[in-house]
Specification:
Length: 454
């Protein structure tokens, strides 16, 4: 910091003294020729040009003014000071260079070591990268091979599973067929005391001379149509189809008031998809959803005094006005989808079908005996006689319930899921199972209020 200040003072002094010294020198040089000129020269004569001093020529000290001499001394002093400062700077630079020499050597050594380590690290990284690339390539190749082997094994497993399922299905069909044959032989053997030579009759056309012959390919259909009953009926349709698609399957309805539209639709679609013809036989009464199933069957039969009943779909709804309207609208859509094929079979439109319902009965419950139902195309054949050829033994006679104050219509609780109950007022009723399908609705005929939704 002291050195820089000294240099600045020296430079400032030189800049200050130099113009003064130059001005005095110029004035002295201009006056010297005038003093040497002759005294008699006229005043108007031209003045001779001053003598030019060559640049760099030294000026004798005895010719300088006191101020110039003082400035020259100060300049000499400052030049000496500058020389001393330059020497000190040179010495300090030399000392700094000498002090930094070990550090520079250490830096050079460390730089060289760093460069060497970097080169080694780069070489090792390159080797590792090559090894990684090689391993990745090997891993990819091995993964591709493993995937190929796994795919091949998976395909083989699927083929074996398919073969196993096919074998299981064939074995199950064989076992079922043999079990059915064994049961049939056992029943025939047990029933010889009452039907010693009777056997089920299997006829492709079961209606012979006005007599309907029903074989053991028979499905009981009684009570309300529920999801449980639909599962029972559809499973047996599939079973009899796997057993044989040559002879008809009989759905025998004693009495059914109808029921769930979704369950009834499931039964109807199973009947339509069956390879074996499905014939519906109504002995007593079929209404609502059950009447639709009978009407849309491939072939149907009933007695002359059998009653079939068609009406509009109804529902037990609850909620606010908007909810009620939505549920009613949805129930109407169910009715349109299921009743339209019935109207089409009758040869009329759905609105005309509804109109005739109320024209025949003010409540809209259009019932008809068997012979009239045939005219309306609700049933295909009216018969006077049915032979149940598969009844080869005596069934136990059911005991009438004693807890009920009045006899109830027959029901199959274990099949349909409908249970017989008595309310707190002692009145018997049938409790319908809850509808698991949130878009389902009850479509049944129940003027006495015997069926109640859970």
């Amino acid at each position: 910091m002291h050195l820089r200040t000294s240099l600045r003072v020296l430079a400032l002094t030189v800049l200050t003294v130099a113009p003064v010294f130059a001005q005095q020198t110029k004035a002295k040089r201009a006056a010297a020729p005038a003093a040497d000129a002759p005294a008699a020269a006229p005043a108007a004569a031209p003045v001779a040009a001053p003598t030019t001093i060559a640049p760099g020529a030294p000026i004798p000290r005895d010719e300088l003014t006191p101020e110039q001499k003082t400035a020259m001394k100060e300049a000499d002093r400052m030049r000496g000071e500058k020389a001393r400062i330059d020497a000190e700077l040179a010495l300090a630079e030399a000392k700094r260079t000498e002090e930094l020499a070990p550090l520079n050597a250490e830096v050079a050594r460390l730089t060289a070591e760093r460069a060497l380590r970097l080169a080694k690290a780069t070489a090792e990284a390159a080797a590792l990268e090559d090894e990684r690339t090689k391993l990745e390539r090997q891993a990819g190749l091995e993964a591709a091979r493993s995937t190929a082997r796994l795919t091949e094994r998976s395909n083989k497993i699927r083929e074996l599973e398919a073969e196993a399922k096919q074998l299981q299905l064939e074995a199950a069909n064989t076992i079922a067929r043999l079990s059915n044959e064994i049961q049939r032989f056992q029943k025939e053997d047990e029933a010889r005391k009452i039907a010693s030579k009777a056997k089920p009759k299997y006829l492709k056309d079961p209606l012979v001379d006005g007599v309907l012959y029903i074989s053991d390919r028979r499905i009981s259909f009684n009570g309300a149509v529920t999801e449980q009953l639909a599962d029972y009926v559809c499973t047996r349709i599939s079973f009899y189809n796997n057993q044989s698609s040559e002879f008809p399957i009989f759905i025998v309805v004693d009495n059914s008031p109808g029921g769930s539209v979704a369950a009834g639709y499931q039964i109807q679609k199973a009947m339509a998809a069956s390879k074996a013809p499905v014939h519906v036989v109504v002995k007593g009464f079929a209404a609502s959803m059950t009447a639709v199933i009978c009407t849309l069957a491939e072939r149907s039969y009933c007695y002359p005094n059998t009653i079939l009943l068609h009406h509009q779909a109804s529902n037990v709804v609850r909620g606010n006005m908007t909810v009620l309207k939505e549920q009613i609208d949805f129930t109407n859509q169910w009715f349109d989808r299921l009743a339209t094929p019935v109207a089409k079979k009758m040869g009329i439109s759905l609105p005309e079908f509804v109109k005739q319902m109320y024209a025949n009965d003010s409540s809209g419950d259009w019932q008809a005996f068997g012979d009239k139902a045939k005219e309306l195309k609700w049933v295909d054949n009216v018969i006077d006689r049915i032979e149940e050829t598969a009844v080869l033994d005596l069934l136990p006679v059911p005991v009438a319930p004693t807890a009920m104050p009045m006899p109830l219509p027959p029901t199959r609780t274990e099949i349909s899921g409908v249970t017989s109950r008595v309310d707190d007022k002692g009145r018997p009723y049938f409790e319908l199972p809850a509808l698991a399908n949130p878009f389902d609705a009850w479509w049944l005929y129940d003027p006495q209020g015997l069926y109640r939704a859970r």
